[in-house]
Design brief:
Elements (H helix, E strand, L loop, with lengths): L1 H10 L48 H6 L4 E4 L5 H5 L13 E4 L3 H13 L4 E4 L15 E4 L6 E4 L2 E5 L4 H9 L3 E2 L10 H7 L6 H4 L6 E7 L5 E4 L5 H6 L10 E8 L1 E2 L3 E8 L4 H14 L4 E9 L5 E9 L5 H11 L5 E7 L1 H9 L8 E9 L5 H16 L4 E7 L3 H4 L14 E9 L5 H17 L4 E3 L12 H4 L3 H11 L14
Parallel strand pairs: 2-4, 3-4
Antiparallel strand pairs: 1-2, 5-6, 6-10, 7-11, 8-9, 8-10, 12-14, 12-15, 13-14, 13-17, 16-18, 16-19, 17-18
Helix pairs in contact: 5-11, 9-10, 9-12, 12-14
Bound molecules: flavin-adenine dinucleotide.
């Protein structure tokens, strides 16, 4: 009953993560909300008041008693599991508390509680942020993980923001449907979709964010909105590619599904001596292959100082033979090792994701978005960067994922995703132990930095879902940044959602 009373009062106012990583193998008395914090009406987002500094210790018991979900305070038994992210490198970041939100009301109450108590509030979905952006020292993490329902009807799926990719696929498969997503089974649909979402279907069906019809989102003023093409349209625009953590907490997505069709798959390997030719051929493939064909390209530093290279391809026609042959012809030589298979939708989901779940993994990574094909000199520099890592025994990979196809056919500027005309995204990935030494971290960072330098001439910026510390916000959003800033000013004028990286506030 107490909870209902309080709410009434409040209402008065993704054999591989081939597309991303080298492997996926990751008080009793409820405090009244001051009038200044009472949500403004949905039509006036800018009316949100300033964050009210805490006058006293936060009334955690009051918050707890009002939740359908659970609250985990530092020092409590459930806290260590609740505050962990996928990358153990961020275990040392200790929020004051984690709310595991079970309902939209939980999210709303958490936001209002954080405002009232002057706490920094960050949303958490699947917890796979490359920079630990879904946790915050001393702040309040709002984990939407328990909100993971998947409901399908008439080609549209409604997905709770806490759903993980494998679960979405497994549920949709029962209705013969799917979504274009990344491959890692434990990546959260929220973070993935808000930042774009690339994967094997990108060329045939576009990005995950391109399939979003509408979103339920709680903004900094505590108002629950349905952002879509005709309502809160600026927010809808911004949340399709602008990344998570800046504008509100999304609680559910409605997305247009795709058929759960069988996939043709191939893996092709070439010797190190052919790496430049293979990369040139892959670039041509990324540019010219039909929309139904997709292949990414891996250059992996081996601990013996050599490079190994392979391409992993998918054809949504159901047979990968033609696509594999096209890639080989562009490379100019047959692959030295070649496997071509056909898999059902769920077999492919499990194969590409390396299983149905993924273990927590340490890594440091970054990205460059390629405007177009790299010239010979840029390719030479890229290969030299990976080779230097191999010689230094740094676990390092350059993984190139193609864009184009349907992702390029969406109108430029129609959503915040800024890279419609780009050829591909290169990920610079370095595996790390769970708790790496300063030297190991430095070596990994050096590799990522050397990758950026190598392709600087061909790079348009970075992919926000492969976000990095210390990189300029403009590099992630290009021509979308000015409008993103305007949307931030409209919906979060007091910068309540203080994104730790790539903040456009
Ligand atoms: C192993 C692995 C594999 C990957 N594979 C792919 C891939 O195949 N394709 C691809 O495109 N990307 C891939 N990625 C990158 C992935 O898309 C991003 O890391 C993404 O941000 C993860 O989303 P999350 O919900 O799991 O992460 P989180 O860390 O929970 O969230 C990421 C960001 O979004 C914010 N956020 C989370 N939930 C919400 C919400 N409900 N509302 C508003 N903001 C929110 C967080 O505050 C944070 O800033 C991969 C990452 C990893 C670690």
């Amino acid at each position: 009953m107490r909870r209902i009373d309080r709410r009434t009062a409040l209402k008065a106012g993704g054999v591989l993560a081939v597309t991303a990583l080298a492997s996926c193998v990751d008080n009793e008395s409820a405090t009244a909300v001051p009038t200044s914090s009472v949500p403004a009406g949905p039509t006036s987002p800018a009316a949100a008041g300033p964050t009210v500094p805490a006058a006293a210790a936060p009334d955690w018991n009051g918050l707890r008693s009002g939740l359908d979900g659970t609250l985990h305070l530092r020092g409590e038994s459930g806290y260590p599991a609740a505050h962990q992210l996928f990358n153990p490198r961020f275990d040392s970041i200790q929020p004051a508390a984690v709310v595991r939100a079970a309902t939209t009301d939980d999210v709303r109450e958490s936001i209002l509680f954080a405002r009232q108590n002057g706490l920094v509030c960050v949303p958490k979905g699947g917890g796979h942020s490359y920079v630990g952006a879904s946790t915050v020292a001393g702040g309040l993490v709002v984990d939407v993980g328990p909100m993971s329902s998947v409901g399908y009807s008439d080609d549209v799926v409604t997905v709770g923001a806490g759903a993980k990719l494998y679960d979405v696929h497994a549920q949709l498969d029962k209705d013969g449907r799917s979504l274009p997503t990344g491959t890692c089974p434990t990546v959260g649909v929220a973070g993935l979709a808000l930042g774009g979402g690339m994967g094997v279907h990108t060329r045939t069906y576009g990005l995950t964010s391109d399939r979003i019809l509408s979103m339920e989102v709680v903004t900094a003023d505590g108002v629950v909105r349905t952002a879509g093409p005709t309502q809160d349209a600026d927010l809808y625009w911004a949340l399709r590619g602008g990344g998570g953590g800046n504008l509100g907490i999304v609680t559910s997505f409605r997305l247009a599904t795709i058929p759960a069709s069988k996939l043709g798959l191939f893996t092709l390997t070439w010797p190190e001596a052919s790496v430049a030719a293979a990369l040139r051929g892959w670039q041509r493939f990324a540019h010219e292959a039909p929309m139904t064909a997709w292949a990414n390209f891996h250059i992996d530093a081996q601990s013996n100082g050599t490079l190994s290279i392979h391409a992993v391809g998918v054809s949504t026609t159901g047979s990968a033979s033609a696509a594999a042959e096209q890639l080989e012809s562009f490379v100019g030589s047959k692959a030295t090792s070649r496997s071509i298979t056909v898999k059902t939708h769920m077999q492919a989901v499990t194969y590409l994701g390396g299983g149905t779940t993924s273990a927590r993994t340490g890594f440091l990574a970054g990205s460059d978005v390629l405007r177009g094909p790299m010239d010979a000199a840029t390719i030479t520099r890229l290969l030299a960067a990976v080779k230097a890592a191999a010689r230094a025994k740094v676990p390092a990979s350059a993984i190139l994922d193609p864009l184009g196809g349907q992702a390029a056919k969406q109108p430029q500027g129609g959503a915040a995703w800024p890279w419609r005309s780009a050829l591909a995204v290169i990920q610079w990935y370095s595996g790390l132990p769970a708790h790496p030494s300063a030297a190991a971290l430095r070596a990994a960072q050096n590799f990522v930095t050397s990758g950026h330098r190598a392709v600087a001439a061909a790079s348009a910026g970075g992919y926000v879902n492969y976000i990095e510390a210390g990189r300029s916000v403009s590099s992630y959003y290009g021509s979308s940044l000015a409008r993103l800033r305007a949307v931030k000013a409209e919906y979060d004028p007091t910068d309540f959602f203080k994104a730790s990286h790539a903040a456009f506030g």
